[in-house]
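Write out the 3D structure for:
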Amino acid sequence: MDRSSGPEQFETVIIGGEPVPAHSDAVVELHERMLGASPARSRHIQVRSGRRVHVIEAGQGPPVLFLHGGSTSSLSLLPLLQRLEGVRAIAVDRPGFGLSDPVHVPRERYRDAAIEFLDEVLDELKLETSALVGSSGGGTWALWYALARPERVRRLVLLGAAPLLPGTRVTAPLRVMAAPVVGDLLARVKPSPKMVVRFMSSVGEKDTIVRYPDLIEALVAGGNDPIASAVSRAEHRALISPFGYRRSLRVHPDELRRLTVSTLLIWGDHDPFGAVKAAQATARLIPKAQLEVLPAGHAPWLGNPDRVSELLTSFVRSGSDG
């Protein structure tokens, strides 16, 4: 599907006898407006499970698959995607976010389900190998995949602290959002631009998010989208217990020592999910890792789009045969 496709393309469909609801009109309209003003292209792919996955593509060159963080979509990565040169950037809306179809988030199989999703996406895109770039929770998915399928990952880039890494922690707002009763009550509150700025302030990006009014609108629309908000709550509860990140999902140091993929960590110096010392410890554990610390919170590309683009492009292309 190209970006000129209208909202009728996103109506409820039946897959395997099960109805798949449409995302809200506001979400669709934001995508059309933001992508209409961007060189990036938008389309859906249909993976083996029958679900539709929305992707945003830009540029030509070696493939680089981007995975956004929680409670957002690939639109959050547009400031970065449109600055990259010499790579084929493919930003994937994870299930239920952006314009992708939702799936059940299985708490007991959450990690396996993430790996299976990326298998399906890479297969449908006909990519035997790709560089993987993940922001926040998308970084955790990318890391899980690199550990499970190192032969398919040419380079790994983590943008901001990836939850579940050693030394990372759950912020207070996320702990509240993951709580069964309080989280359900909060879900009834309609997000506003002011609330989005307040939340971004809690992750160290108050001064940067205001530079992107369209992105604030996209976060508001996503927060008001019943599909995305339900998947977001389920994802938080799969990851977070009343005591922090679930022990069964944490990435253990021994796993990082076995990681064979060359890895770049781009970390904010005031990222509330993990201090710089956590980034340094992670970089020491991964055999082929390098760390870049930037003046940023949890989304380092928002305040440093040119520098992150330069670091990412150089790192990815250094591991390409093309």
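The chain has one domain: 7-318.
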